[in-house]
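Incident log, support desk, overnight shift.

02:14 A customer reports that sequence design results differ from what the structure should imply. Their input is reproduced verbatim below. On-call engineer (initials T.W.) acknowledged and began investigating.
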């Protein structure tokens, strides 16, 4: 059964990582494990052990259809793409520091370059 939602992990220093899942209960069980390839999170984990981070559901969704739009809205609202506020990584950065990311299927768009469009590959 699908249980889509947008969530965030909150570091004790106040910065956050925003994400979304089709099944939010699975993310609650897995915790930050899938994000250990994110260098910003890895650096923060050196100072703040995982058990000190908080998990928060930002928005429960009625369907999975607009999950990525809702996720991006919260990323923009909380400015988690900015290292001062969070751990989300912009597409251009992902290409440079997270090999294989280009297969995910997102691309930068928008005037400020901080919006993601699903279904397009980022420029190489």
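02:41 Re-run completed on a clean worker. Output:
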């Amino acid at each position: 059964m699908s249980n889509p939602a947008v969530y965030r992990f909150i570091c004790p220093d106040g910065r956050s990582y925003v994400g979304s899942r089709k099944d939010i209960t699975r993310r609650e069980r897995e915790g930050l494990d899938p994000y250990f390839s994110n260098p910003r999170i890895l650096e923060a984990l050196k100072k703040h052990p995982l058990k000190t981070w908080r998990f928060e559901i930002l928005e429960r969704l009625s369907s999975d259809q607009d999950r990525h739009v809702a996720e991006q809205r919260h990323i923009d609202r909380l400015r988690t793409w900015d290292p001062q506020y969070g751990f989300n990584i912009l597409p251009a950065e992902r290409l440079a520091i997270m090999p294989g990311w280009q297969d995910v299927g997102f691309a930068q768009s928008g005037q400020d370059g901080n919006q993601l469009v699903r279904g397009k590959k980022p420029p190489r």
